[in-house]
Amino acid sequence: MAETSELQFERADYAQPPAEMVCGQCKRAITTSYYLAGDQPLCGLCRNDLERTLTSGSRVARFAKTIGAGTFAAFLGFLLYYGIAALTGYEFGLIAIVVGFAVGSAVRWGSNGRGGWAYQALAILLTYLAIVSTYIPPIVTAIRAEEATAAMSESAEDPSVAPAEDPSVVEVSQTPDTIGAAASGEAGILRFMVALVFLLALACAAPFLAGFENVIGIIILAIGLFEAWKLNKRTTFTVTGPHALAKPPAAPAAAV
User: Fold this and answer.
1) Distance CA 136, CA 141 (A)
2) DSSP character for 32?
3) Are 105 and 127 in contact (CB under 8 A)?
């Protein structure tokens, strides 16, 4: 994944720098020289810290950290969105904006404030998944209800039902069927994964299935996604310096 640094260091001097200044980061007084990161003055130590933060570190490790932080924030956003809907019975679309802000902030923290299209895409994806995942529990409930209704209908049409076996009787078979049981277990895992992907795909499409009736919800969802995208825009830091700090003018000599 290509990632270019937008940090620029330039040397410049100003004719009349301020006579008194404090560092915009550590708030310590600057007595000799200073740097400018945009409009913010920095002392030498904070300038070096900023350079290390924006130019050092492994891209893979940083992106892994970003995925972890963003996923955790997305999970918390899912709990918040679904919890409020479950408790109140209503969906408050404005929470999507909160989720977008939380996920976007987590992704920006994980990337050390670098930003860029890759982090923006990750923030949008995690925000969208956090929001649409709240549709999965109702979808599962509806599917189970439909299956139960279909089973009851079949039972009503065919009253001949085999008697239930005594659960206290357990028959142990020492046959090669053990291999078949293992294969059946693997097939069960595969079916579970396919069902999970199907549910997630259905949940992703859910906001648009209602058409124009959910236009307000789609707009609010878009605002949440925009919030996550905006927080991870690449920021260009132009650091200039060192600049000499102006000395205060000497006090005039007292008249004798």
Assistant:
1) 9
2) S
3) no
Calpha distance 136→206 (Å, rounded): 10
Q: 3-state SS string over 167-206?
A: CCCCCCCCCCHHHHHHHHHHHHHHHHHHHHHHHHHHHHHH
What are the pLDDT digits (tens) for 107-132? 999 888 778 889 999 999 999 998 88
As given in the structure block, the two tokens for residue 71 are: 């996923």
pTM above 0.90, yes or no: no
DSSP state of 38: T
Mean pLDDT of the region 83-90? 78
3-state secondary structure of 239: strand
CB 135 within 8 A of CB 199: no
Does residue 72 register a pLDDT over 90? yes
| Identity of residue 31 | T
CA-based nearest residue to 76, from 131, 135, 139: 131
Cα–Cα distance measured from residue 197 to residue 101, given in angstroms and rounded to the nearest whole number: 26
Q: Give the whole-angstrom CA distance, residue 127 versus residue 229.
A: 10
**Beta-carbon count within 10 A of 133 CB:** 20
Helices 177-209 and 136-157, axial angle in degrees (round to 10): 120
The two structure tokens encoding residue 4: 């270019």
Contact yes or no for 142/100 (Cβ under 8 A): no
